[in-house]
Design brief:
Number of strands: 0
Helix content: over 70%
Number of helices: 13
Order of helices and strands: HHHHHHHHHHHHH
Strand content: under 5%
Largest sheet: none
Number of domains: 2
Length: 363
């Protein structure tokens, strides 16, 4: 004899809701140590999924092989180069700090020549705020060099101690990339089925998430790496000390709208002029303005459609805010949050214009 389906009471529904919230929070807390690995696994899976699909079309029925080839491409094209770059960057930074500690660089003299190379209005502005006092500035710098060296040394020891944690996160990320590339459609379908949103809203938000992730990686990270690489090559050819270090700094500055690579190549040009390398300083300024600075205008329209871009002012705000709140992961999280925010309120606007009542509670 069949019995009717049990109708949950209000108390039972409230109890299950509290349990669902608690167990979800506990689950998030238990995997939070790998939050960065999970985020970048999702990002790389989203970015490389079209590449995997193209391989799979050429190899019908061999999805596992196509996924393995894609994962190997990610390891060889992303993971290894980033690891090598980090190692080189640490060595460059250590060398720079060592030279500063040994006083092999005439910092006061260099600063004096740099100030004299500036326009009169800039020199007056520095004098007004007392920033042209070489003695005070050099004393402050000397006092902080030792502290900086100790901090870098402590950080190096911390990195060594946390090596296994980093390797563990890397292995988790690689495994998740494989799973998402192989079973991503199933994961998205099953996750979407339990999200308490209308299907059309889920579709819009999912589309925005994928679009902004790809736009951020291709239109921000790839372009910034190209600009940093170009700047590094130019500085290396011109004999600028620690060219690799400044190339990495230029890469990060290129990710910030309204700031850009000028944050690096302008001071480098002034440095070269101040140290008597006139033609090198002029070349650096010309290359920065007409080559490095225009890479963004050339590559971004090719890599990213204009329809996926947000206003530069908003991108700058959410990128800086994301970096401040979430560290390096905020480079992705900030734009994603902004995109979903705009998409959600755009749906509200459209529904109001169409006369569809907006529910006061989550569907």
């Amino acid at each position: 004899m069949e019995t009717g389906r049990h109708k949950a009471t209000t108390r039972e529904t409230a109890g299950f809701t509290l349990f669902l919230i608690a167990i979800t929070v506990a689950m998030i807390w238990s995997v939070w140590a790998f939050s960065g690995a999970i985020l970048w696994a999702m990002v790389l899976a989203v970015v490389f999924s079209p590449f995997k699909e193209r391989i799979q079309r050429k190899m019908p029925g061999r999805e596992g092989t196509a996924t393995a080839i894609t994962l190997l491409t990610i390891v060889c094209g992303v993971v290894f180069p980033v690891g090598i770059l980090i190692d080189m960057l640490i060595q460059e930074g250590a060398g720079l700090i060592s030279r500063l500690q040994s006083n092999s660089t005439d910092l006061p003299g260099l600063f004096d020549r740099t100030v004299r190379a500036l326009p009169d209005w800039a020199q007056s502005w520095l004098h007004q705020y007392g920033w042209d006092n070489l003695t005070n500035l050099s004393d402050r710098l000397a006092a902080n060099i030792q502290t900086l060296a100790q901090a870098v040394g402590a950080r190096a020891l911390s990195i060594g101690a946390d090596l296994f944690a980093y390797l563990g996160s890397l292995l988790v990320a690689l495994y998740l990339i494989y799973v998402l590339l192989r079973h991503g459609a199933t994961v998205v379908e099953r996750a979407g089925a339990v999200v308490p949103l209308a299907p059309h809203r889920r579709a819009v938000l999912a589309h925005n998430f994928v679009s902004v992730v790809r736009a951020t990686v291709k239109g921000t990270v790839v372009v910034a790496v190209a600009q940093g690489a170009a700047g590094g090559v130019v500085m290396w050819l011109l004999g600028v000390p620690n060219a690799l270090l400044w190339a990495v700094v230029m890469t990060f500055s290129a990710m910030l709208p309204a700031v850009g690579t000028g944050l690096v190549w302008v001071p480098v040009s002034i440095y070269l002029l101040a140290t008597g390398h006139v033609w090198q300083g002029i070349v650096m300024a010309l290359m920065g303005a007409f080559v490095i600075g225009t890479i963004d205008n050339v590559l971004r329209p090719i890599l990213v459609g204009r329809e996926t871009q947000m206003p530069d002012a908003l991108v700058l705000l959410v990128t800086l805010g994301g970096l401040s709140a979430f560290g390096f992961n905020g480079l992705i999280i900030g734009p994603v949050i902004a995109s979903l925010f705009l998409a959600a309120w755009e749906m509200v606007r459209q529904e109001q214009e169409e006369g569809i009542p907006v529910p006061a509670h989550i569907e």
